[in-house]
Design goal:
The chain is of the alpha/beta class and 244 residues long. The chain is built from eight helices and eleven strands.
């Protein structure tokens, strides 16, 4: 990559982490080089992740205070609040969020320094995007209880690593949002997942919390899954995988 390449709004406290086996990955990108930040955000969304992007440390702390992220991609030299200070605060508070620190310096001393601040992983610029994705997924697995490598329910199977989903052996052509939504439901088969929870895990903060994005995505996903129906709507509850 060249050049170094929630539904929760400010004022609302983050929901306590309930240790459900969430599958979709929520990421905060905190990087002051806007072209790089937007490129990383776009690329991770194409990988099915929900991504918010900020360009300074002050805003990063605001986002971290109101949204539970699995991973923060943290540029070390952020304006406002320095990346080192953000990392210290997360480590001191024993925060659930895992930290992947980015820096323009690739020396061993700099890596040791960054890790000693409490970062979980360290990636010097420039970096290969495929490596960034692999590191984010590895950190996300450490942020939540483990899931099996392949998720299955009835005749549905989903392989997150290959970004592949099948029903009765037929490959499903799903958008990143549809894939992530199905991944969340498959992670908790039979459990009712509210539209708010799905919106928080699959969409980024730019999505209107009162929109019908979840409803429309579920409608498209049902059409692609075909018959017999496998996603149930629970009145005033949300959605769950039911008997097919």
């Amino acid at each position: 990559m060249s050049n170094g390449f929630s539904t929760r709004r400010p004022g609302r406290p983050p929901r306590p982490y309930d240790h459900r086996r969430w599958a979709a990955v929520r990421v905060l990108v905190a990087e002051d080089f806007e072209i790089l930040a937007r490129s990383v955000g776009t690329g991770l969304r194409r990988e099915g992740m929900a991504v918010d992007v900020v360009l300074d440390g002050t805003t990063a702390l605001e986002r971290l205070a109101v949204t539970r992220y699995d991973v923060v991609i943290l540029d070390r030299d952020l304006p406002g609040v320095h990346g080192d200070e953000i990392c210290r605060r997360l480590a001191y508070g024993r925060h659930e969020t895992r930290v992947l620190m980015l820096t323009a310096s690739g020396t061993i001393e700099d890596r040791v320094d960054g890790l000693s601040l409490g970062a979980d992983d360290y990636l010097p610029k420039p970096f290969a995007f495929a490596e960034l994705v692999a590191r984010v997924r590895a950190l996300a697995r450490r942020a939540t209880p483990p899931l099996p490598p392949t998720l299955a329910y009835a005749d549905l199977t989903l392989d997150p690593a290959r970004r592949a989903a099948f029903r009765a052996g037929r490959r499903l052509e799903l958008s990143p949002r549809e894939f992530a939504l199905l991944e969340c439901l498959l992670a908790m088969p039979g459990v009712v997942v509210s539209a708010e929870e799905l919106l928080e895990r699959v969409w980024d903060e730019a999505t209107d919390p009162f929109s019908s994005a979840v409803k429309h995505t579920v409608h498209r996903l049902r059409a692609k899954l075909g018959d017999p129906p496998v996603i149930e709507t629970v009145r005033e509850g949300g959605y769950r995988l039911g008997a097919s």
